[in-house]
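Methods — Computational structure assignment.
A single polypeptide chain was analysed. Its primary sequence is given first, followed by the predicted tertiary structure written as structure tokens.
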Amino acid sequence: MIIYNRGADENDKEFEYRILKNNIMINNLKPGEHLMSEVNLSKKLNISRANIREAIVKLRNERLLDVKP
């Protein structure tokens, strides 16, 4: 996964959402590929799990991500 620099006016939710969406759109995250866990994403990006969950929900609502238990 490519980690981009955070924008000056970007909050945690926007930052996480942009990273995930950009990686999906440039096909760096392939269809059907598993993301790392919320815990690992949280540690890697230094963002709370709640913000990661919100980004995942937003991407799921845009039909860019499937969430499976």
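Note: The two ends are 22 Å apart (CA to CA).
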